[in-house]
Specification:
This protein has two domains: 56 residues, Orthogonal Bundle (Multidrug-efflux Transporter Regulator, Chain: A, Domain 2), CATH 1.10.1660.10; 55 residues. Strands 1-2 form a two-stranded antiparallel ribbon. It contains five helices and two strands. It is flat and about 70 Å long. The longest helix is centred in the last third of the chain and has 50 residues. The chain is mainly alpha-helical. It starts with a helix and ends with a helix. This is HTH merR-type domain-containing protein.
Length: 129
């Protein structure tokens, strides 16, 4: 699919897609100098969107995909690759811990909101009837 169709499917602006290509985050195939995307690219784009919503930086997202690629190509790993993998892994582990912290904060806020809903509904029910 071309960049326009891909943009509509993923809700990612065309300029952003060009930027992702430039920084080698989401690299489409080139056919007659046109960017052509696959279903696999759609899946990757949706992961990028989700990671961005979780406050991953573009560098962290790139590290995530680099780590995934290095794991898939594990037979070709040399000492330098291991060091790069370790750096990526540390970054991913820190983000994982951050997400766990956010989950705990959300659980606390959710509990407080639920209590407020119950109290408010009770107040309204007692006031009206």
């Amino acid at each position: 699919m071309d960049i326009g169709e891909f943009s509509k499917i993923t809700a990612i602006a065309i300029d952003t897609l060009r930027y992702y290509d430039k920084i080698k985050l989401l690299i489409p195939a080139k056919v007659n100098s046109r960017r052509m995307y696959t279903e696999e690219d759609v899946e990757k784009a949706l992961i990028i969107i989700k990671l961005k919503k979780l406050n991953f930086s573009l560098d962290e997202i790139k590290a995530f995909f680099e780590l995934e690629k290095n794991i898939e190509q594990s037979e070709e790993i040399n000492d330098e690759s291991v060091k790069e993998i370790e750096v990526c892994l540390k970054m991913i582990e820190l983000k994982y811990k951050d997400i766990e912290r956010q989950e705990e904060e959300l659980r606390i806020v959710k509990t407080a909101l639920n209590k407020m809903i119950i109290k408010t509904n009770s107040l309204i029910k007692n006031r009206c009837c």
